[in-house]
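Render this sequence as a predicted structure.
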Amino acid sequence: MTRKNWIFTASVISLAAVFSVYIFPKKSSEQEIVSEQPLPEIVEQEELVYGINVKGLDVVEGVVGKNQTLASILAPFNVPYQIIDEIARKSKDIFDVRKIAFNKKFTILTDKDSSLAQFFIYEPNPAEFVVFKLDEGEVYKEERPVEWRKVELGGEISSNLYVNMTELGISPDLIDQFADLYGWVVDFQRLQKGDKFKVVFSEKVVEGQVIGIGDIETAYFEHMGEPFHAIPFEQNGEKSFFDQNGNSFKKAFLRDPLKYTRISSRYNLNRFHPVQKRYKAHLGTDYAAPTGTEIRSVGDGTVVEARYTSANGNFVKIKHNGTYTTQYLHMSKIASGMKPGARVKQGQVIGFVGSTGLATGPHLCFRFWKNGKQEDWLKEKIPPSDPISKDNRLAFDQVKMEKMQQIAAIPYSKADGILLAKNNQK
């Protein structure tokens, strides 16, 4: 072979080697391992209800009807009575099924093929639920996460306290707290247009829904231009509210025997009696309220009478001490346990509003004795609890400064004709 032919042959062989590398590359060991790996499994997404995977189950929601029991709720879902009886016995320490109440929400999870109930979930309140695992006889209770959200709110009186606070979205429970707090400072039956209020409290929230409120944290009321700050402070082991001068808001008695309501008739020595159709002294204060409204004792004391008479209807009379006695008339029903000698606490429910005796409609006639003589309750000056002591003055002034700054920072703004400000904070 000539030298030229040898060079040509070598060139062809080299090019062939190069083409074999690029056109038919050799698989590496790493590539071989990758190609042999199995395809990833597709994980089926869970559908959770009350923490239970409901894939393959039907979800039935409802509310408890009148007189319904666990047995009557589960009867249409093919649950044998023996299982219902067993689950009722097992659940006693967790949740007594006899406490299943009207209008409460429940959920039943059933098998798609047989409609046999596998789970029964009951919600006694928005913050918790009870799970009955019917096929295994297991019962457990779960709580939803609770968030406390601070609310700062201010408004102006254009009608009355209840109407204006309700228009701002304030619950009746908070209105009652506010009225009790300021009851001895301000006559809420005689408010003026332009009186202002501010209040700081917390809302209990579950899954974005407000399910309750906490206690008032601090408050402000301005009546006819006079300011009244309510400063929280603990003295002698008890938390109470004091005004900006260190005087206590707390008295020996609540201002009203009903939660915030309307006075329909005042103490009057010459009132025309609506039933007897003649003028006679009305030695009490009438509070208009729906039948069944709770009546509470205005102070600690001992029951001296709890009975019925043709004039007074059902009534309770309480002796508080050597000076003061109160009486509550026309009840629809006297509360359980009210009998002579029974001890009652301030705010304790002693009966319910009605129209028994000489009454034209449901209301409470409240009577008040001082040293054995009936007096006008609304004009009585009840001595307050002790003011801030000298030893606590420095600490109180520090708290007062913080709370007054907080109140001052709550803005007012016009909204639908109402002066309104509401700040929500987590």
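Summary. The CA atoms of residues 56 and 130 lie 22 Å apart. The two ends are 95 Å apart (CA to CA).
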